[in-house]
């Protein structure tokens, strides 16, 4: 009995997920629903399946529903404040250490003064970089989920296409029909 379960053929069709990304194509093709020319394409992530759809159908809940973008998770204001305070404390310790060494540096000459000015310039540029807000994340393609009946139909079409390809491959291994007379 266990061997019969292991001999069951595995499905050879591609498993689809009901997440389609809206993209713009260079050429217009007929819409999947109304056959009007459109450049809007709904495609899966790896473009295993795609279909042309008018923008008006994308707003129809009977065709597809928009999947909301996940919330952007970034550092909170408290985290930013904590990092800024740590940075300021580190700079104060560094300056205090430089001042104690500064008495010795005055004796050495102008070389220490140049290093101090360079450190101050770098400290001001670093603080400017920390205070500036991060750049906004660019939004990607809008995501849609097809209506369940439409998605099932798309799965069936893809499965039938793949079955036809596999049937053609299997038929190549079969012997030819005799063409001569007996």
Biggest sheet strand line-up = 3-2-1-5-4
What value does the average pLDDT take? 79
Identify the overall geometry: elongated
Query: Over all CA atoms, what is the radius of gyration?
Result: 33 Å
Task: Please give a structural write-up.
With 182 residues, the protein is of the alpha+beta class. The protein has two domains: 2-69 and 139-171, no CATH class; 77-131. It has helices at 2-6, 55-58, 77-108, 110-131, 148-171; strands at 20-30, 37-43, 50-52, 64-67, 143-146. A five-stranded antiparallel β-sheet has the order 3-2-1-5-4. α3 runs antiparallel to α4 (110-131). The longest helix is centred in the middle third of the chain and has 32 residues, at 77-108. The model has no long low-confidence stretch (mean pLDDT 79).
Short description:
The protein is an alpha+beta fold and 182 residues long.
Offer a few descriptive terms.
2 domains, Vfa1, single chain, 5-stranded antiparallel β-sheet, 182 residues, DUF1742-domain-containing protein, alpha+beta, 5 helices
Can you lay out the helices and strands and say which pair or pack?
Blueprint: H1 2-6, E1 20-30, E2 37-43, E3 50-52, H2 55-58, E4 64-67, H3 77-108, H4 110-131, E5 143-146, H5 148-171
Antiparallel strand pairs: 1-2, 1-5, 2-3, 4-5
Helix pairs in contact: 3-4
